[in-house]
Amino acid sequence: MFNLRPIAFILGMALSKLALFMWLPTLLALTGRSRGFEEFLQATLLTHGAALGLLAWGRRERLRLRVKEMFLLTTLVWTTVCVFGALPFVFISHISFTDAFFETMSGVTTTGSTVLAGLDTTPADILLWRSILQWLGGVGFIVAAVAVLPYLNVGGMKLFQTESSDWSDKSAPRAATMAKRIVLLYVLLTALCGLGYYALSDMNAFEAVNHAMTTLSTGGYSTSDGSMNHFAPAAHWVGTLFMFIGGLPFLLMVSSLRNRNLELFRDAQVRGFFWLVLATGLVLSLYLWATGQYPLMDAMRISLFNLVSVLTTTGFGLEDFGTWGPFPLVLFAVLMLCGACSGSTAGGFKIFRLQVGMALFRRQLLQLMHPQAVLPQRYNGRSVSDDILRSLITFIFGYFATMLVLALALSLMSLSPQVAITAAVTAVANVGPGIGEQIGPSGNFATLPDTAKWLLALGMLMGRLEILTVAVLFIPRFWRH
Questions:
Q1: Is 323 annotated as a binding residue?
Q2: 347 annotated to bind ligand
């Protein structure tokens, strides 16, 4: 039914890369800056062993995987990486596997929710590992958004079909070249972000490296319980800039840099994202200043940082926006659903879906006034086929249905309505912190029941992989033929 050997080979390749990155915190522990060298070494060797086993059993064939196998493989890569990525948390932090898997899933999906407290005294190797997980998850999703999801026709992603989305042998070399360029740009921007943190703020080298990885990946893990409150205002401006960059489409950035043109700035998504940040930032800044909560410059810095953090689903904390009053609270609740650009490291609904939905709404209004008119649906200079519209509408239904079902399930565990609803929204939208004292910017998810953590981990995975990629696995017919 399924050709499992090529799937096993690709899983082995993914685990081998994870094991290589495990050596970084292992060597950090060896230097004496942190405890846990033996435990990290054990986790690293176990991951290498599993990778070698899968590579030995699997085989690298020039066999094109079917669509069903691609759905299965995409979900398996994320879950398998999370299982082995959780081992250092179990061995060193001595937390349950449930908590470790939740933390790892939150990291790999760049959600930013955490069950760990006392980060200021947490071993440096664990802090580095959390940051690496988010950094790898960010670049991994860029590749998935460019190459895999358009191929699977998920959520209207065919609007961004490129050679990288074609799995034919003819396009493979071009796809590999594009992937290398994206990774190179990702590494370069991470280095620039780290340099900015180190040179312009009060972060030391270790803090700058960690925050650079979690900023560009729009993940939001920090080395301090105070998150960005722990650092000077200059760090907030650096963070705002690189979170915004992380929310831009990397494929377009690579293309614009390579061709030395303004293609990036002509993109409808990018323009929409920019104006949304600017407009909401201006309104919120004036609100915070007019209500006497902050001086004008502080209001601009704090509001822009939090807005970009929420829109890009980063989840860094700066102040507690839950105490600002009803208007900011409702605004952030709405923005949690939006997300940034497709092909970025950000999660969420994505700007392009809002734009296509608004265009479709306008077209329907015009059609009501002129029933005989032929009104072609276009977006960003490209025609939008009925197939893409069906995929997009299906995604929208699945997106909000997943949040609703998850919130209802969480409410059965004696969680308050606020916690149940915002936890579901932040998990599926990959935002990170929720609203309220328990799971808000000043809290964490440690106090939630284990069942809730498993459900939220599933919500994070579904949100990151655009809902339908995972939901299709729950259909019995998927496994029959």
A1: no
A2: no
